[in-house]
Amino acid sequence: GDSVTQMEGPVTLSEEAFLTINCTYTATGYPSLFWYVQYPGEGLQLLLKATKADDKGSNKGFEATYRKETTSFHLEKGSVQVSDSAVYFCALQAVKAAGNKLTFGGGTRVLVKP
Amino acid sequence: DGGITQSPKYLFRKEGQNVTLSCEQNLNHDAMYWYRQDPGQGLRLIYYSQIVNDFQKGDIAEGYSVSREKKESFPLTVTSAQKNPTAFYLCASSSGRGGNTIYFGEGSWLTVV
Question: How far is B90 from chain A (nearest CA, A)?
Answer without folding.
Answer: 7
